[in-house]
Amino acid sequence: MRLFALVLALLLPILALPDLARSQPPALPKEKGKVRITWLGHAAFLVQTPGGANLLIDPWLANPKAPKEFELPAKIDAVLVSHGHSDHVGAATDYVDKGGTQLVAMNELGKLLGAKQPTGNIGGAFRVRDATIHLVPAVHSSSYAAAEGQPAHYAGEPVGFVIEIANGPTLYHAGDTGYFPGMEWIGTKWTPEIVLLPIGGHFTMGPEDAAEAAKVLRAKAVVPMHFGTFPLLAGTPGALESALAAKQAGARLRVLEPGKAVSF
Question: What domains does the chain contain, in order, with CATH numbers?
């Protein structure tokens, strides 16, 4: 009996302990990774994903707003070119079929740029590391001339890009475009959190239409682009901010400084 009492005395404090497994808080869902976006002036951007993909969009790196001291990563995983105009193609040919860089562009434009690798068309998608890049419509024109003074050739339809990032946000780079009803479809299908929209006017939509686009896209953040490069591109971020408020778009304006990476 004495032995039983001794064992019971030893066990009672253990039995009285709380059920640790049940008392632990539930596991929190894994936090989304951050994407780094660097504006390189005009419509050019470097997008860096949590999985290590370096995506270079519309790489006209000699534009008047391009950061002078900025150095691109040594490895560019994909170059995305929205259409054939020189202020968007820029330095794309420096990367075509070199170093394993994927060219994401319309088939006709890819051929004009000398690509031997397969390119794509509207409705298609490319997988680059943790990013899935969808080609979507844009309302503009597209032709390509290899050099100034040479004949321009049809370069396929202009496109925008929806970039889905695994365990990260979804982005939409609209390319050069006016407002079009299909933006509502893009908003319904992908609901991009971050949208990069032209606002300069004349060749693309201006601030008013860009605010309407942000609204139907259901964006959380709007990054203006394609403004102020030339006097004709007169739309301003201030006008966009006013239009976003007037339309109750619910999107936050994020004006990027060329060469300064911002995490979203």
Answer: 33-257 (3.60.15.10)
